[in-house]
Amino acid sequence: MAGTFDRHRRLRSSAAMRNLVRENHVRVEDLIYPLFVVEGTNIKEEIPSMPGVYHFSLDRLKEEMEEIAALGIQSVLMFGVPEHKDYCGSEAYNDEAITQRAIRQIKADHPEMIVIADTCLCQYTDHGHCGVLQEGQVDNDETLKLLAAAAVSQAKAGADIIAPSNMMDGFVAAIRQGLDEAGFAHIPIMSYAVKYASSFYGPFREAAHSTPQSGDRKTYQMDPANAREGLREAASDVAEGADFLMVKPGLAFMDMVLRLRENFNLPLVVYNVSAEYSMVKAAAANGWIDEERIVMETLVGFKRAGADLIITYHAKDVAKWLRGE
Ligand SMILES: [Zn+2]
């Protein structure tokens, strides 16, 4: 019999042997933790559909940031939720708005922390779309000017990376030009290059209060049925000067992570989105799954597909698990 088949089990014979030949690892440095900041004081309010994820006012954000830093997480993704919303999303590019104040505060308290600023208009517009509307349609090129202004304002506040999520055509080029002209040529752009019009964002929209008041985002976010289109989107962003590429959401779009990995050499980010998190939390609360093992298997799956960095609401738990806590 010997020699007629392969003995794959030799390399799985013990925990030490498996550790020796393991191909992919999740490190705490790979994790980016999203934060939701609101106006007001003494607010730490759990988002009902996302157990363990909170809205923080700036005063309560301090304790959260202490915990994040102590866990060894070195990157956060900032979402500001303003009280005042208007037609053109003015708070997105107001230097004194909640997002900008939060960035300044974090950089003052934790200068070593990488603060990534989500750059979009949907949290700031009263209609909830990611751009300005003209006769009910999102006006792409008018929106670009506002996005560039928002990015410059965030960079001024101290953001280390600008992460535009709006899916307008030309957003990387417009933001790059705006940053360069304002003296921020050194600030990288993490483009949400391949972002789908997905149902997996449901809980997030509750968190960011950003559900569109009319219509949907299908004229700018991608059709979940399309893969080749994602390569065109990514190629445009690379040509326009993106420094990182992102795929969002993660689990149902793992093939896109692999396709981008095989086609581009930029650092690749995957967003493990809100519904992916909420479904795990709900199943774990019912005792149906082993939360830690499910989450670690998911994250190593992202790495195996080719992701370098993972934006995830599980980041704090993962940091603890990686330390054996
Ligand atoms: Zn948006």
Automatic annotation (TrEMBL):
Pathway info: Porphyrin-containing compound metabolism; protoporphyrin-IX biosynthesis; coproporphyrinogen-III from 5-aminolevulinate: step 1/4
CDD domains found in the cross-reference section: ALAD_PBGS
Principal EC category: lyase
Cofactor(s) needed: Zn(2+)
Family assignment from sequence similarity: Belongs to the ALAD family.
Gene Ontology CC terms: cytosol
Chain sites annotated for binding 5-aminolevulinate 1: 205, 217
Binding partners and assembly: Homooctamer.
Binding site for Mg(2+): 233
Binding residues annotated for Zn(2+), in chain numbering: 120, 122, 130
Pfam families: ALAD
Record EC number: 4.2.1.24
Entry protein name: Delta-aminolevulinic acid dehydratase
Signal peptide range: none
